[in-house]
Design brief:
The chain is mainly alpha-helical and about 240 residues long. It has nine helices and no strands.
């Protein structure tokens, strides 16, 4: 009977652990890239819809009219968005879990903030696709529409702050890490876009007209995270 040496057993364990890590990050990156591409498409559909209805901080009378005229593109945006959000959230969760396992608490905290923002945006996309336009088309629904639009605005801004802040936290840590999972150049772009989005959302909370800036930051941010997902999926671990 042949016995394996302790060194051989230890090497086998390390190889198995390496394979498991690579598998987790490969799946995480694939989900993140696919979901982010869907969110980018969602952002384009938002852009094709009346901005008064799909951006936060807009006059309510214009938002009501826009929700009626933009019903078709808003439905498409919401439908693509809610499914893309779920896929992206799975990717963000897996990345956060792997970073926790590696002891990178700061980066993991950033990814958890990103995960929470995606959950918030699932409700935002559901409202834009399936609530605002049907409600606007109902007779004598102005008051109800105003309430849901205010909720939409707050959730949109909250999700943007969480996404931007999480991106800054996670990607700034990537730039300091000796074993990064994202390239420095992409991380720098992500930090800039995330910071810009968070600041634009904070400005709207203070009554300043930065709705377009928030919308652009989400579109650019989703494109950046599609690239991040591809890097995580393809990078040797």
């Amino acid at each position: 009977m042949t016995y394996a040496s302790p060194a051989t057993i230890d090497l086998g364990r390390k190889q198995a652990e390496s394979d498991r890590n690579a598998s987790i990050l490969t799946v995480a990156g694939a989900a993140l890239a696919l979901g982010s591409l869907g969110v980018t498409m969602t952002s384009l559909l938002y852009a094709l819809s009346p901005p008064a209805a799909t951006l936060p901080g807009q006059p309510l009378d214009q938002a009501l009219a826009g929700a009626i005229t933009g019903a078709r593109t808003m439905l498409a945006a919401g439908t693509v968005g809610i499914f893309s959000d779920i896929v992206m959230a799975v990717g963000a969760l897996l990345v956060a879990l792997e970073l926790v396992r590696r002891g990178r608490a700061v980066a993991a905290a950033g990814w958890i903030a990103i995960l929470l923002s995606i959950v918030v945006f699932t409700f935002v996309d559901a409202m834009v696709g399936y609530v605002l336009s049907p409600l606007a088309a109902m007779k004598d629904s102005a008051s109800a529409f105003a309430g849901f639009k205010r909720l939409f605005d707050v959730l949109f801004l909250l999700g943007t702050v969480a996404f931007g802040g999480g991106a800054v936290l996670a990607l700034a840590d990537e730039m300091r890490s000796t074993t990064p999972i994202v390239s420095r150049s992409v991380a720098v772009v992500g930090v800039i876009v995330g910071l810009a989005g968070a600041l634009a959302a904070a400005a709207i909370f203070m009554g300043l007209p930065f709705g377009l800036g928030v919308g652009i930051s989400i579109g650019l941010g989703s494109a950046v995270f599609a690239a991040i997902g591809m890097q995580i999926m393809l990078k040797p671990q």
